[in-house]
## 1
Amino acid sequence: MGRTMFYFRYRILNTLRDELLLTKASAKMTLFMLLSAGIPTCGLFFGIGYGVQTHSVLRGIAAASIGLTLGACLGWMLPRAVWNILRFFGRRGWFLQPNPITPTIILSFDEFRRRSEALDRDDSRDQVWLLPAFITWAIGGLGVLNYLGRDSALAGIAAFVVMAIFVTLLVWIVLAHRRRVKLHGLACPNCDRELSDTAGGGIVVSLGLCRQCGVKVVDVSEELPSELNMQ
């Protein structure tokens, strides 16, 4: 991919791209960093578990070594394999965004930061009541189900209602956040998706480009930092 940034139609592909760029730059803890550490650890424990079952110290050491080695190789190969897949998609022109439309509004860096901080403050206010709400939902739901009993005909209806409340809370959180994004003017004028230096992992701040469609949205340097370039 070199210094060319590919922007995909699907958010999951753009998220993988950003996670890989951040992993290369070691800018923050990413999913691929956790996987690179977690996969070898799982391999080690599987090897130890096998050794315990065989009741042989030598077999246990050998199995643990093999599990750790295989896990380390897999953890090392995973981000590079995903990155090459994204490069292949980009070079083939698969799943790419159409040519971006030049926006009529470009935010200054300071204005973008100010709006992002205001959005974070508004989102934080929800956390004041969301945690008690989820705790009440969990305790209340378990209490109702326990009271009705597993064999009760009403238990199935109660379980459905409990899950419906949970889904309603999640949908409300997503819609409320989306409304605040619009309110603070942090939706891309081209693709209408959220501009976020947090979700973008610094991509928006570093490049001034929407992480989803690649259109210029923030008045910063367009040069891709060399530390974000993964060969």
## 2
Amino acid sequence: MNRYSIFLTLFLISFTCLRAEEFSNEKKLFIQTEQSIKKDILLPEKFLTNKTFGKRMLYSDDKDVFLAYLFLLKNFTGDVNGEVKVKYADIKEYLCPDMTSKKAYDKITKILNILYKKYELIEFDPHFKDNPGIKLLSLKEDHLPYKYPNIDYLVIPETLWIFGWEKRLSFTGLFTYFINLMEIKLIPFDTHWEIDPDMLALKYNLSLSQINEGLEELLQYNLLEAFSSKEINIFNNKPKIKYKVLVLYSWEITETQWKNVNTNYNKKDIEKAVKYAAIIYKKYDPDTVEEILKLMKKFPANKIRKAFKILSEKSISSEERSLVYLLKIIKNI
């Protein structure tokens, strides 16, 4: 065997080993991804768009019922009969951990009855003691056992529960967050989605005020970001707005920062600064509120007031709704 043949043989062996290692790593990554997906919830799009489910719950203010349903979906493991293996104690711990057993039992029974009779999403044993015997039903009228959706669904990340956002957000805010997840899923090669709020309201059978209220709440909590588009909105002849869903974060860290703000500043000034921060969609951001408090000490009150009035007239997606532009405005007044 000549030198060239030896070199070629060694190269092929090395290449084969390298590809085997890469394939092994890819397989591990795939397995990890599959495992993480199983921890997330797959919510059928029909739940959001059909008047019978999401809209009806929202208008009835059945948030606890909605959370209970999501909890059942989260604990569903693919049983062919739709059975969810959760006990009364599990539901109590999630929905009403601080209630006495009697009150919690009454509340949980009422919620399960609503899911069963009003929304026809489950079946359960109404005379249960420890095991409610809950079975999820299909969203179709056939009332067959529930199955994992394989098309037209959104993925609700497990971090929603880890950080407790499903309870922190209002029902409208939570519902709008799910709408955002659904819309971004429909655009597989982009991180932004774009649709007129009027069309969004029509698609999900909600009022325009509900959509706007939900979007603003998500912006204030820094769970959503808004950008100006080059296209023009036919309803108001202004640039369309593009939205980007941001990563969920731990509210516990934010609470610690709020404690520092409350310790270092007086209550009236903080309340005023929070109102100002809301104009730039940062009312829940302690860093922004503290920066505004510092500006309130540095500049006259009338200048601060005038500057924020100017900012309030800017578009929801304008880059000028920020502390950077606020400072420029103050210095030019």
